[in-house]
Structure formats: C-alpha cells, structure tokens
Amino acid sequence: MGDLARILEVVQEGRQRFVRIVYVLAPIFGFLVTFRLVPFSFRFFGWTVPFAYPFPDPFDNVTAQVFRATVAWMLPPNVQLLNVGVGDSIVVQMEIAAILTLMVGMPWIAHEVGAFLMPAFRRDERHLVRRIALPATALFAVGTTIGFTLLTPLTFRLLFRYVAAMGLAPVIGVQQFATFALLYSLAFGVVFELPVFIYGLTRLGLVRAAAWKKHWRGAVIGALLFGMVVTPDNSGITMVLVAVPMIALYLAGAWFARRWERARQLRSIAAGA
C-alpha cells in the first residue's frame, strides 16, 4: 500500500507540473496566433529605438510575420510558394506557433521537468545536471541558430540549383517548405547536444571513454541514419549536411570524455601517493 501511495503521489505531482507548464504555454500560443506586431520607432536621447506593439489580428498574426521573414531569408528570390491544400496555411501557422511557444517557454519547461526529476537523482547526478544544463542549452541555441541562419538557406539554394539545372519551375508547397525549414533547423540544435550527451554518460560511469573511440564506425552509420530520418526530403544532400557536423561533434564529445577520464585517473594517482 505504501508503494502504491508513493506512485500515486508521483503521478499527482507530474500532473501538477504538466498543468503548470500548460498555464504558461497556452497564453504564449494564444498571443502568437491572435496578435500581430506593429513596428514603430521613437527618439531617445538622439537615438532611434525600434519597437513594436501588439495589435489583434487572427489572420496576419505573429506566426504569419515570422513565416514571411523566414521565406525572405531562406528561399532564393525566384522560388514561388504554393498553397496546395485548402488548410495548408492554417497548419503552417499552427506549426510555427507551436515551435515558437516551445522555444519561448523552454526555460519554464526545463525548470518544471528538472524540479520533478531532481529528487530521483543521486547527489553526483544532481551535480552533473547542474554542471551541464547551461552548456546544453547554449549548444542547442547555437545549433538551431546555425541551422536556421546558415545551413538551411544553403540547403535550399543548393537544392534549387538542381531544379534549375533540370529546367523545372522553382515551386514548393507552403507546408512542405515550413516543415522542412523547421525540422531541418531544429535537427541541428539536437545534433549540437551530442557532445554533452557523450560527456554526461562518461561522467556517470555508464560508458568508458575508450568505447566512444572504439565504436566510431557505428557512430558514422548512426549519424547518416539520423540525417536520413530527420530530413523530410529524399535527397542525400541534406542527409550528409546533417551527418558531417554530427560526426565532428561526436569526435569532440569523445575527446572531452577522454580528457575528463584522464584527469580523474591522475587525481586518483595523486591521492594514492
């Protein structure tokens, strides 16, 4: 009965944490799909300061503004977007709103999830989580930014050069574009988490540093498979563009894991002496 009561207590706490997350994310999502940002500027001590205020508009909302900015940044100027399905534009707005909501609310989500899981960790595991939380967040932000600003636009330009070489019309469906741009950019954020994952497993004693070096061939195959799964197109180009930095990050993580393991061995030798 005691175990059952403990399980029910954990379930109840998890439900409360989930409800608290929804209370924060739901207003953010609602704002993104019902308001648009109207830019203006004002003078402040001789400086022109850009600003924006929200204005109710469920059609030309923040997600539509983000979509237009993404199109202008990523797609070559001669590419034409088509609304193939009747509801494609609505689905795209919901997808963008969901991604932006998760990005804005991620600190709160991490706080609630961490508060829920922290009692289950040992003392050394808690220390490790606190130690790698900031680098993991920074790496995800860097990877997503690089994917969004550099690699995804580069991929679109490269793919449409093949379209031009075939003499085909440079056309893409609006939902296909949004899904590719969002998933492909976020994939790089996930890829940049790999060094933290490798380092953390070695710090916890679950995987020896030598194992990462030994199984590098499997890591290469895994990176190619990951690139094939996360890229929503059929070309091998996008798969390779994901797999190459993933392999490099795998090697970097293995190097940091080996460096920490050697430092621990040296500390053990010094303590024994």
Distinctive features:
single chain, 273 residues, mainly alpha, two-stranded antiparallel ribbon, two-stranded parallel ribbon, 10% strand
- Summarize the main sheet: 2 strands, antiparallel
Secondary structure category: mainly alpha
Instruction: Assign a percent range to the helix content.
Output: over 70%
- Cα Rg: 23 Å
Overall 3D geometry?
Answer: globular
Low confidence ranges: none
- Please state the average pLDDT score: 84
* Biggest sheet strand line-up: 1-2
- Distance N to C terminus: 51 Å
Total of helices: 9
Count the beta strands.
Answer: 4
Helix and strand pattern: HEEHEHHEHHHHH
> Which band does the percent of strand residues land in?
5-15%
Quaternary structure annotation: single chain
Give a written overview of the molecule.
This protein has 273 residues and is mostly helical. It has a domain at 2-145. 75% of the residues lie in helices and 10% in strands. The chain is built from nine helices and four strands; from the N terminus they run H-E-E-H-E-H-H-E-H-H-H-H-H. Strands 1-2 form a two-stranded antiparallel sheet. The protein has a two-stranded parallel sheet with strand order 3-4. Strand 1 and strand 2 form a beta hairpin. The protein is globular and about 70 Å long. The model has no long low-confidence stretch (mean pLDDT 84).
